């Protein structure tokens, strides 16, 4: 058996005294933190309300960023495919030059040439219409990206005034994924 000595009794008294002081200190810190949180809750109620009112707009504009980029990419794909098709058709139209005699085509070839040329010109016109749509979509995309960034800056500014060094905001891709516009992990256009 182990006998308690005077030395053991002194260590126990010192250890229990330190433990009490540490518990008191920990309690004081905890009370201080809770008081700070309660103060912040009341002091920043207006800022919290502004943040809550801006977040739905932030999500709406973020979704619009993705939708506008998808529109731009879709139109660009159509234009690029049409350009490749037009290059082939242009070569076919230029090939009629080989069949000319004294600068003229035979009546049968001339009729085919006119049909091919009209088809080519109609396709060029459709391509140019899509190019106008693409330009409008690019302007729309630039506007919504600017709006999204300004709104994000505004939200972070309000959060900063509340002492929040980092305020998490979803990216447009995360918003689109959450709304089911794109699946998580899908490659979004740049």
Average residue-wise pLDDT: 86
Global morphology = rod-shaped
Q: Which regions have little confidence, pLDDT < 50, spanning 5+ residues? A: none
Q: What distance lies between the first and last C-alpha atoms, to the nearest angstrom? A: 77 Å
Structural class: mainly alpha
Helix segment tally:
4
Q: Which series of helices and strands comes N to C?
A: HHHH
Characterization of this structure:
With 190 residues, the chain is an all-alpha fold. The protein has helices at 6-43, 45-94, 107-161, 172-178. The chain starts with 5 loop residues before the first helix and ends in a 12-residue tail after the last helix.
Descriptors:
mainly alpha
Offer a quick outline of the entry.
Helices cover 79% and strands 0% of the residues. The chain has 190 residues and is mainly alpha-helical.
Helix and strand arrangement:
Blueprint: H1 6-43, H2 45-94, H3 107-161, H4 172-178
């Amino acid at each position: 058996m182990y006998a308690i000595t005077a030395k053991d009794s002194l260590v126990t008294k010192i250890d229990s005294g330190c433990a009490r002081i540490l518990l008191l200190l920990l309690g004081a810190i905890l009370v201080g933190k809770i008081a700070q949180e309660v103060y912040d809750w009341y002091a920043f109620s207006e800022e919290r309300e502004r943040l809550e009112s801006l977040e739905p707009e932030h999500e709406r504009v973020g979704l619009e960023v993705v939708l506008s980029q998808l529109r731009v990419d879709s139109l660009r794909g159509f234009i690029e495919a049409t350009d490749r098709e037009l290059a082939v058709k242009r070569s076919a139209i230029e090939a009629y030059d080989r069949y000319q005699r004294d600068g003229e085509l035979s009546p049968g070839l001339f009729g085919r040439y006119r049909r091919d040329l009209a088809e080519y010109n109609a396709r060029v016109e459709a391509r140019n219409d899509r190019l106008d749509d693409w330009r409008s979509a690019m302007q729309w995309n630039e506007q919504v990206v600017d709006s999204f960034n300004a709104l994000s800056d505004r939200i972070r500014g309000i959060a900063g005034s509340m002492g929040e060094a980092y305020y998490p905001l979803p990216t447009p891709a995360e918003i689109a994924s959450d709304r089911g516009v794109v699946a998580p992990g899908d490659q979004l256009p740049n």
